[in-house]
Amino acid sequence: MNVWTAIALTVVGCYAVKLAGLLVPAGALERPVVRRLAALLPVALLAALTAQQTFGTAHGLALDARAAGLAAAGLALLLRAPFLLVVGAAVVVTAGVRALGG
Hey, where are the domains in the chain? Predict the structure, then answer.
């Protein structure tokens, strides 16, 4: 399979998923369980992506400078810092740990 075949299959798959979402009856979307799931799903997906990008490597799990940056961002969030400060704290701490050889 070459790259263009993979791209074409991805395009068709994305279109099919979008079409399937549009074909769901409106009554099914107004159920309380579906509304609650729709509200919680983005948070769960973002948490999973953050964990995978922070602790995952090509060969398994790692605890490195990225984890320190995530901890700094978490602390800044607990202190109710503005978003740019949260990102800045994560960047500075990650760069500092990497500069120290961690």
Answer: 63-102
